[in-house]
Design a protein that fits this description.
Blueprint: H1 6-10, H2 15-28, E1 62-66, E2 69-73, H3 79-99, H4 107-119, E3 130-131, H5 141-149, H6 155-170, H7 172-182, E4 187-198, E5 201-212, E6 231-240, H8 243-259, E7 265-267
Helix pairs in contact: 2-8, 3-4, 3-8, 6-7
């Protein structure tokens, strides 16, 4: 498969021609097959994006897992916007893994993921990996991830994401989905999105994590780094959804993901943050 020239697509001046090129990419880009899990899970997405339920606000914060992507949502993020986050991250993941089946471990894979997200309506800067120092790799993987998030997320957002990671660990379905998609023998890759509303726009603090270890990992987020001789690369970016770009592509993306037989989108049960 040849590399996709994302800048050529994004820089098309004529809006109709640009949409045609973007639409063709969504229709034709190869998607990696979904990994097998012990149970098959459906996408769980309504076909009616304009329904009252799709525009409803959650009563409180929430979280989801879409393949190897975990997301947290502030209370004012609508179900429609949560769906956009999950579908976009899942679609990007499956497209990148078709070309980079070993995981999103290189900057070429990382920026293909970024290019897909930009094509779906998430403008973001060029991304690069930073290697985490060995002094930062202490304890369980999930604890290390939360510590790394302090570099680009505020304390309240990190507190919510702690509940999301705890929910993945404690819920069999969420854990099964995340682990089977993130883990690749001795390591793997996954992404995080902390999603909130900012002046009426859907804002995502996006993180990508690439992990290579010297040992086979059973449960990806919950292994101890001291036993793994690990190398971890991370990359972060901030993005805001352009709904005029995403809206016309939503049904196309959903159709492609449905064809992939998919498990994948899951609402993660969160513990009561007051306890």
């Amino acid at each position: 498969m040849s590399d996709i020239d994302f800048s050529a697509i994004h820089n098309i001046a004529d809006a109709d021609e640009r949409y045609a090129a973007v639409s063709n990419l969504v229709d034709t880009v190869e998607l990696a097959p979904l990994p097998r899990t012990e149970t098959r899970y459906g996408l769980g997405i309504s076909d009616d994006a304009s329904s009252d339920a799709a525009n409803a606000k959650a009563d409180g914060p929430s979280g989801s897992v879409a393949g190897a992507a975990a997301a947290s949502f502030a209370p004012d993020v609508s179900d429609e916007d949560k769906e956009a986050v999950n579908l976009c991250m899942l679609f990007a993941q499956r497209a990148v893994l078709a070309k980079h089946p070993g995981g999103i471990l290189t900057e070429a894979a990382l920026n293909m993921y970024r290019g897909i997200l930009m094509t779906l309506g998430w403008p973001m800067p060029v991304m690069s990996f930073r290697e985490v120092s060995s002094s930062e790799l202490r304890g369980r993987c999930d604890t290390v991830v939360l510590g790394l998030m302090a570099g680009f997320m505020n304390a309240d957002a990190i507190k919510l994401f702690r509940l999301v990671l705890g929910g993945i660990e404690n819920d069999q379905k969420a854990s099964d989905i995340f682990n089977s998609n993130a883990k690749k023998d001795k390591g793997g890759s996954f992404s995080t999105g902390a999603v909130s509303m900012d002046s009426g726009l859907v804002k995502m603090d996006f993180g990508m994590y690439a992990v290579e270890t010297s040992v086979n990992i059973d449960k990806f987020l919950w292994f101890e780094f001291r036993n793994a001789n690990a190398k971890v690369n991370i990359s972060y970016a901030e993005a805001r959804l352009v709904k005029s770009v995403w809206g016309p592509l939503r049904d196309k993306v959903l159709k492609r993901l449905d064809k992939e037989s998919g498990n994948i989108i899951d609402n993660i049960p969160l513990a009561d943050p007051s306890k």
